[in-house]
Amino acid sequence: MGIESEVFGDALPVAERYAKFLAEAGVERGLIGPREVDRLWERHLINCAVVAEVIPERARVVDIGSGAGLPGIVLAIVRPDLSITLLEPLLRRTTFLNECVEMLGLTNVVVRRARAEEVASEFSMDVATARAVAPLERLARWALPLLRPGGELLALKGERAAVELEEAQPVLKRFGVRTTELLQVGRGKVDPPTTLVRVVAEHAPRRAKGSRKKRSS
């Protein structure tokens, strides 16, 4: 547990409880695939936790399409200074997330059942995170209206990160975005390092072309 202890520090016992809940209830409810259990730490928990390296202190964070709580729950564990909203439209997932929050005693987390476009007028966040939610072209439409001017989207992406960033340029230009970059975090802690697409919102219009289809619970 060397790397795990280095990444989570004093919060490691909380992370261990979360990992156990993912491996049991998460699998039973279809939020985590059975094949993921043996690689929960490296592929999921540590992969998400290292995102905290680039999040400012005391930031207000919205995790879009939070699902099983990746990366939102993990960030809340490793960074208690953050104020995190887990945004998820599906009832069975928000039920799971609320159980996690209560079980782990995470006082810095709120679970909200909604789609991003439904709550854009209510939010003015410092950071939006998302993992395995949608291609950046669509994700940007949902995330940027949730951010304050100067806020940033941190999208966890894989080997297609550069391609997705290029494909999203027309959407980003419509939002007035001028600052984008690819980042790698967690070097020496997770292999390969976690790849992030970072998009800084110059301004965040509350509506944009394209919307997300409704999903049932």
Automatic annotation (TrEMBL):
Enzyme class: transferase
Binding, S-adenosyl-L-methionine: G65, L70, A116, E117, R131
Keywords attached to this entry: Cytoplasm, Methyltransferase, rRNA processing, S-adenosyl-L-methionine, Transferase
One Gene Ontology MF term: rRNA (guanine-N7-)-methyltransferase activity
The keyword S-adenosyl-L-methionine is annotated on this UniProt entry: yes
Cell compartment(s), UniProt: Cytoplasm
Matching InterPro entries: rRNA_ssu_MeTfrase_G (IPR003682), SAM-dependent_MTases_sf (IPR029063)
Cellular component annotations (GO), alphabetically ordered: cytosol
Documented EC number(s): 2.1.1.-
Chief location of this protein within or outside the cell: cytoplasm
Keyword Repeat in record: no
Similarity comment: family membership: Belongs to the methyltransferase superfamily. RNA methyltransferase RsmG family.
Chain's role: Specifically methylates the N7 position of a guanine in 16S rRNA.
Annotated protein name in UniProt: Ribosomal RNA small subunit methyltransferase G
